[in-house]
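Problem 12. The chain below contains 115 residues. Write out its predicted structure in token notation.
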Amino acid sequence: MGAIPPGEAEKALTLIPLEAAGLTLFILALAAGIFATVFSLPGTVLILVASFLYALFTGFEPIGFRVLAVLAILSIAAEAGEFVLGMLGAARFGRVLHIASMALGVLRVARSLRR
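Solution.
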């Protein structure tokens, strides 16, 4: 690997303010997705959407179609796994408790939207 010519390293690391803002929003969206996953929210979908939007706005240079395809497969697998494990837990610990918890969750969301 050869040496970087003088001035090229600074040019490669320089971002215009709009690029910096977009990259910052992308990183915040990824962090929100990871945070949402901890609380059993669809954080993987948020990460996938943020990655797609970032790739779209940057011309698919830093994130290509292969990376997006892998992210989509992982997102689908994670959401399907969460659903299957939730159903197995419901079968083991009682469907009534599972349905009651889902109903309470819907009521809680509806209540928060009214405020």
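Discussion. The two ends are 60 Å apart (CA to CA). Students who got a different answer should revisit the alignment rule from Section 12.3.
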